[in-house]
Fold this sequence. Notes:
By secondary structure, this protein is of the alpha+beta class. The chain has 10 helices and 20 strands. The strands form 5 sheets. Strands 5-19-20-6-7-9-8 form a 7-stranded mixed sheet. A 7-stranded mixed sheet has the order 15-10-11-12-13-18-17, covered by helices on one side. A hairpin with a 5-residue loop joins strand 3 (11-14) and strand 4.
Amino acid sequence: MYESRGQRHAITDQCPGSIPVLSVSSNGQWESARSRENSSRKECRDKERDRYGDGGKYAGRHSELKDRATCLTQNSTDRSRTPHPGNGINRDGTPRPVKGAWGQGRHRHPQHPLARTPTRPLQRNWEVCPVLRPPGGAMFEFSVLSYNILSQELLHRNASLYKHCHSRALPWEYRLPNLLAEIRHYNADILCLQEVQADHYEKQIKPALQEMGYQCEYKKRTGPNLDGCAVVFKPSRLSFLSAHPVEYFRSGIPPLDRDNVGLILLLQPVPTDCVQSDPSDFICVANTHLLYNPQRGDVKLAQLAVLLAEINRLSRLPGGSVNPVVMCGDLNSTPWSPLYSFLTTGFLEYQGIPVDRVSGQNSAPRGQRLLTAPLWSQRLGVDTHCLYDTNAQQQFHNYTTTTRPCRYYTTVPPLCDTTTPIIHTGAVSSQMTSDRPRIDHSLNLRSSYQHLLAHNGTPEVTTWNSTVDYILYTPPDAGTCSHLPDSRGLELLGRLSLVGKSELKAVRHLPNQHHSSDHLPLLARFRLHR
């Protein structure tokens, strides 16, 4: 029973699944209609709260609210009258969102929380690369994925960068299943992950990856930072030899005053019936996340020199030959920048380069500070060839790395020979006659990507506006290192295509409903001739 203005009204009709419809007198018609709408809204709130919980995952369904509004309209006493526009009902009978944030127990947006985001993910295809060396003999093929998965702590700390994103796509509870689904879909043999938050790694990421058949190694950033780098691999395909975390922070040694890190693993292909294990036959896999600050190119070059020195030490064999290297990571540098050129050409004449142009991140550099010699202090123990100084090598190694041998071996096979000099040949040695200050390295690194889209020649992007993520490898031709046998080089078989700026703009950038990081994963497949 219901009362309005002192008059008692009986229920004469009822719409199934909706509030009761009343017959009212003419002088009480307007107030009764408003009362019915208030009751409708209250019942909607109560049922939604009972069904989804107060602030549940999808608090409010468009179809259900619209059906209730339509039912109310059709069963009103004066059917020609438009329902009174309350907080939840428009004049056309459709539900209207109530002001207020999601998750506070009120009516939510009537549509799916991610309805405004794209309905389709980015289209990425597999690109087959031309093979220069025909298959033959003992071979081992493997795939590598590099992925900056966006630490949740960094997302919160830099929330202003993600205002363009739908708020429902940002919580870790939504992003984690998407990230794990991507990793499971690509099914790579080796994963190099950056911005892996330590607590999420231990409690969620590591157990999930172990269930997928992976073995995980992790290095947290130094200082108060909560994220780090992880290298993950399938022990069914690769045997673990040793792990070597690298810390870039050096107290009192400028410019190494930042808490970035790297992680290097030595992995050996699992023996097969046709190919037996060789202790010297391994792959050196390096993963790193260099400093972001576009104004500090000097720091990035010094961090890179430390990583290259450790890669050189670990990949070299006693006879002077070098095993293949895969170097992944978020280098916070764009293609064809001075830092990228240093990696891919083997040298950099740095004198006079503006510090804020080293990484290529600044479209309009404004700094006046220039790179000058020397780039780092001799106390670092790394020379201009990105090799350890003989006297300082052991001290530096003890300070920066921890070697953990595989439990299946009682000893670690010999990894380096500090007495064997590295011989520079080819393009690098021809340039070393110059008197201009330079740095160089002996690795012949090549990018797995061309950095231009094949169909239109526009730049590829791995994040919002540029490419900063890479998978670098040592190819068979060994250009700058004469003692690297062809058999120890890696052959690029294919890669997962990237997209351009326009494609990212079309999906409202990253993260979004389908892509739960602000970076895109890179995936490449290699062949190792053994």
